[in-house]
Amino acid sequence: MSNAVRTKLKVWVLGGGLMLAAIGQAWAHGDGHGHPRKAFDPAAVEDTPFGKAADPAKASRVIRMTMDDRMRFTPSVVEVRLGESVRFELANRGKVLHEMVLGTAADLARHAELMKKFPDMEHDEPNMLHVKPGQSGEFAWTFDKPGTFAFACLIPGHFEAGMSGRVVVR
Predict the structure, then answer these.
(1) What is the DSSP pairing of strand 84-92 with strand 61-68?
(2) What's the per-residue H, E or C state across the chain?
(3) Count of C-beta atoms within a 10 Å radius of residue 158
């Protein structure tokens, strides 16, 4: 086998391996960008460092927020009481897809870096919501731990442009 053929074969194998890794990473992340939200399932609720998913019908308060192409959430700071379950109602006033991902600041920063590497990654977790342009959606969360937590749009470029905010739990 010639060196040129051997080099092409190495490139082909390496490229295929990288593609399989990207597909595996995206598959492992779930499927949520633009897909209908799953119904709340109390048996599937997992505790996180920033709280847990809640039944939207049982939320004690509604927090209405907008997302826009200026890469902003309004409001960008939300205060909740310890133990409170809130329903976030999000309206996308922009012309591009936006999302709200709730978590710790460190988790969101790591996830934003992963989204840069795999921009077409799809996911559907209870702490996030993807909203198409001109559409709205909702999810509910129980904040059962005190502290300051973060939310952001992790679509590549949006987080870097400042599309983030925080939740203060007292």
Answers:
(1) parallel
(2) CCHHHHHHHHHHHHHHHHHHHHHHHHHHCCCCCCCCCCCCCHHHCCCECCEEECCHHHCCEEEEEEEECCCEEECCEEEECCCEEEEEEEEECCCCCEEEEEECHHHHHHHHHHHHHCCCCCCCCCCEEEECCCCEEEEEEEECCCEEEEEECCCCCCCCCCCEEEEEEC
(3) 23
Per the CB < 8 A criterion, the answer to whether 143 and 102 are in contact is: no
| Residue listed under structure tokens 């051997």 | 6
Report if pTM > 0.85: no
How many angstroms separate the CA atoms of 70 and 154, rounded? 14
CA angle 157/163/82 to nearest 5° reads: 140
Question: pLDDT averaged over consecutive 10-residue blocks of the chain (170 residues)?
Answer: 46 39 37 54 83 96 98 98 98 97 96 88 87 97 97 95 97
Within 13 Å, how many C-alpha atoms sit on residue 54's CB side?
A: 22
CA–CA separation, 38 and 137 (whole Å):
12
Long-range contacts of 5-13 (CB under 8 A, 24+ apart): none
